[in-house]
Design brief:
By secondary structure, this protein is an alpha+beta fold. It is built from five helices and 22 strands.
């Protein structure tokens, strides 16, 4: 069954997925959902594979109408979700009847919310991903009046009626605030900043309004290297905190260039990169150094939560005759 979502209010919304992987050797960044955890949870809650296309809604309200019943979930930055004027919970699978208006109203915390619909969104792919890329002019931004087609195996006339929300899975919900604490690991050039590196964890930084999907610019103490030798351009990881000649910090996001030549004073740990993607201008950031072992332990905990949620959703969906792990192939069966 195909569903068509008609966009009523678009704000800054685009269709995305987890990103474009395996193309770094061609100079193509991964891009994709800024908050990977929230995007994965949204898809899991409606029975899709983690990497299914979904809508990333950035710091603005979003509204649409659907022509057939759908199953959706909203995660990410705090937002109030209304179905036909009735508020329903986010971070839960929600049944939406046909022809009603769905409104998502963003709060002032965090940058990105995620809207997943059970099924496969029709969109263009490049090298295995639909993630927008501003440098390559890829991606689909949503506009009022536009339509999103979804191939879905959701059958409300077959499945028993279940009130909203469909199930209460209670996934782990991150804390969204205006003050963020991010774990970091020592960067390859940390030793070139002498004792001033202590300023990294002893000071507070403010997110600059010039920040974007390429890098988060941070206002605060500046840093100077103790040596003046040039650094050859080399690969830089997601979360690398660079120190350009101005001395101000730039934390690289998913749209970062693959190579760069600025010194890297620290690298945001994997378990904190989703929070890095949710920073909004004016937010305050504080860093804390962690060991590699601690960073790996926290990252493993995130994946453990996702594994547990998949198991719970799969079992619940199977109990009412609904499929889990929706892909284009499974929809066409």
């Amino acid at each position: 069954m195909n569903a068509n979502l008609t966009v009523l209010v678009s704000g800054r919304a685009a269709i995305t997925d987890l990103g474009r992987f395996g193309s770094a050797h061609l100079g193509i960044p991964s891009n994709g959902a800024s908050d990977q955890y929230s995007a994965r949870v949204a898809n899991i809650l409606v029975g899709n594979v983690d990497s299914a296309p979904l809508i990333q809604i950035t710091a603005a309200d979003f509204s649409f109408r659907t022509d057939v019943p759908i199953l959706l979930a909203v995660t990410g930055a705090p937002a109030r979700l209304f179905v036909d004027g009735v508020e329903v919970p986010s971070w839960s699978p929600v049944c939406v009847p046909a022809s009603v208006r769905v409104d998502l109203r963003m709060s002032g915390f965090g940058m990105h919310a995620y809207l997943a619909v059970k099924g496969v969104m029709s969109t263009e792919f490049f090298r295995g991903s639909c993630a927008p890329d501003s440098l390559l002019a890829l991606g689909r931004s949503l506009q009022p009046g536009g339509s999103i087609e979804i191939e879905s195996d959701y059958r409300p006339f077959v499945h028993p009626y279940l009130p909203q929300p469909l199930f209460a899975f209670s996934p782990h919900i991150p804390i969204f605030a205006h003050v963020w604490n991010l774990d970091v690991l020592t960067g390859p050039e940390a030793g070139q900043f002498g004792d001033s590196i202590n300023e990294l964890t002893e000071s507070s930084f403010t997110v600059d309004a010039r920040s974007d999907h390429v890098g988060t610019r941070l206002d605060g103490p500046t840093f100077k290297r103790s040596i003046r030798t040039e650094i050859l351009s080399r690969g830089v990881p997601l979360g690398a905190i660079e120190v350009p000649p101005s001395g101000a910090l730039i934390a690289l996001q998913r749209g970062r260039p693959i190579t760069a030549g600025y010194p890297v004073i620290a690298v945001v740990a994997r378990a904190s990169r989703d929070a890095l993607g949710q920073l909004r201008p004016g937010d305050s950031v504080q860093f804390r150094f962690v060991t590699r072992a601690s960073a790996l332990e926290k990252n493993d905990a995130v994946h453990s939560r996702l594994d547990t949620l998949r198991q719970r959703v799969s079992l619940a969906f199977d109990s009412v005759g609904m499929t889990f792990g929706t892909t284009k192939e499974s929809v066409q069966l």
